[in-house]
Amino acid sequence: MSTASKTVLAAAVLSASASCMAADSVTLFGYLNTDIENVRGSGGKGIPSTWRESNNLSFLGMKGTEDLGGGWRAFFQIQGNVFLNRGAGGVNDRDTYVGLGGPYGQVSMGFQLTPYRASTWLPIDPFFMNTIAGANSIMGNGFFPGGNAQGSSSFDRRQANGVLYTSPNWHGLTGQLMYSLPNEKTATQTPSLLSTSLAYQTGSVYLSYAYEQHNSYFGPGTTDSGHRFGIAYTYNSLSVRGAAERLHYEPTPSTYTNRWAWQLAAVYQWTVQSIKVSYIQAQAATGNATVPIGGIGRPGVDSGARQISVGYDYALSKRTTLYAVFSRLMNRAGTSYNYSTNPLPGSVTGMTLTGFGVGIAHSF
């Protein structure tokens, strides 16, 4: 973290402490996760076995609420990345927003996860789309934090310029709607994003459907869309989960690419230990496009991929966990999916990536 960032963060923390009397609550929170990994790539010229320390989505944040009376409240959050392995980070380059909530739901504005991503992030993927085992290596076609038309191929996003509405919980049913304004408008292009989700959770069952639409991301007159379905069932110590996704891209108004992918996962937990497994498969691309989009190969080539991941957690306390993780991502000749949280540098189309890591996670 730069000296300027440290100064800003220190000032923010001091200001938050001073304002505790005025607000109902101001909380400093964080999550720190790092591991030692061995990763390699096979296929093509290959990537030799390499040892590395990886930061896994560590962050530091501050949030607060104020009671406005009549069932209404104001709330905010400021959150930034913390790169443990290299001493860097930012103050507000993760979910950062301000909003109002009341009897009819809540509205927030800022830089936030899309409902599409959030619909399966925690409820379905046992690795929370984190570490080399995260599902967003394939699901969503890779994670990207940014604004409209940036990272144009990604449907696994943290989005700038977004207005997000979250409905009240009605007998286990909750809806979300986000619209990202076209701040990146140019003389020929007006990109915008619409993301929605509907989730039902009660007792041991979770069901979700999410839809997202990107307008003019690849150029004027193009529309890309994603449909994602999620399901989870928990019985005693066992949780079984699944997700399916259809992505549609229009690199030009007259060409398109479609791709299906799905995930099956399970978590078994006993006392302070848990075992996690995940299998993801990306189907071959179809359509008439002539270029690959993100990790997806272009239609007509040998495309598709599989990822197998296994993890073990041992909780030392409610806040601290030791873990081990293994993941193998197998691309076919025409695809180039990569680990999403910490991609393997030098990875090429058709490569198989294999990694193993041992680490520690701490939250506060």
Automatic annotation (TrEMBL):
CDD domains membership: gram_neg_porins (cd00342)
GO biological process, alphabetically ordered: monoatomic ion transport
One of the record's GO cellular component terms: pore complex
Domain of life: Bacteria
InterPro entries documented for this protein: Gram-neg_bact_OMP (IPR050298), Gram_neg_porin_domain (IPR033900), Porin_dom_sf (IPR023614), Porin_Neis (IPR002299)
Main location: membrane
Membrane topology designation: Multi-pass membrane protein
Keywords: Cell outer membrane, Ion transport, Membrane, Porin, Signal, Transmembrane, Transmembrane beta strand, Transport
A Gene Ontology molecular function term of the record: porin activity
Cellular location(s): Cell outer membrane
Domain Porin: 10-332
Signal peptide: 1-22
One Pfam short name: Porin_4
Subunit structure: Homotrimer.
Protein name as catalogued: Porin
Organism per entry: Paraburkholderia elongata
